[in-house]
Amino acid sequence: MRVSPRERATARRAALQAVYQWQVSGGDAGEVITEFRQEGRLKGADQAYFVRLVRGVVGDAPSLDAALGKLLTDREVEEVDQVARALLRVGAYELRDCPETPWRVVINEAVRLAHEFGSEASHRYVNAVLDRLAQTWRGTEIAADPKRSRD
Question: Whole-prediction pTM value?
């Protein structure tokens, strides 16, 4: 069964909120996922992708943070605003572990969510960091992208 881009976008939005909640309150991924399901917050979402993102980010946050930390020149990962940190973690996980999702989609969705939930300039910050990370993890895909030469 094919999943629509809208269902994926809804899953990504819910994953951002779930990762943010996990960052603020602690707990484990299973608790957050259960809460989102029980509260009906996954309506219209690709639930399998939501679970994959949340479990992936929560389960591998230290590794994701290490990769992000190498790219942050102005602060430590722990000092990044909670919303931007959640966006960076979800975006980093998708870039690294979801190769079926094009790199442009990952970055565009993260920027869109930064506009919706982040501070005034967070979309630029998220875009810059994820773009540099994409160069590392998706370099071959980016090099083969015919649109990239016009950017």
Answer: 0.94
